[in-house]
Amino acid sequence: MAGYRFKVAKLIRDNLPAMMRDLGLKVFEWRLEDHDFDLALRAKLLEEAAEAHAAATRDDLAEELADLQEVIHALAALHDLTPEHIDAVRLEKRRERGGFDGRIFNAAVEADHGLPAAAYYLARPDQYPQET
Questions:
Q1: Distance of alpha carbon 77 from alpha carbon 83, whole angstroms
Q2: Is 24 domain-assigned?
Q3: Is residue 76 part of a domain?
Q4: 45: domain CATH number?
Q5: How does pLDDT run across 24-72, given as a tens digit for each residue?
């Protein structure tokens, strides 16, 4: 082996292989079928969300939000979801549950044993750990 080999193992944008080759890199890629594309997009969604979370400046945040939107558009298209359909669902959820305009932060909830609403939290211990 003449040099380094780095594992990438993730979905990349369409023009990147050519751009990388122009830089002298050898790129090993293939086209994903629907199921694997779906899984890769969902992983990419988490990757881009983490990068948006870590963005330090307004410009960095704009870049990462743009990446998130690109992934969202691709994932929606794969599942035949139009932007209009997604926005209609968003607006219905906003009408029913509200938006984030009030900046409300929920620190915890308490539920008596046997309360049906507690099942939601009990079913998600990683997301909602019990406090003592």
A1: 9
A2: no
A3: yes
A4: 1.10.287
A5: 999 999 999 999 999 999 999 999 999 999 999 999 999 999 999 999 9
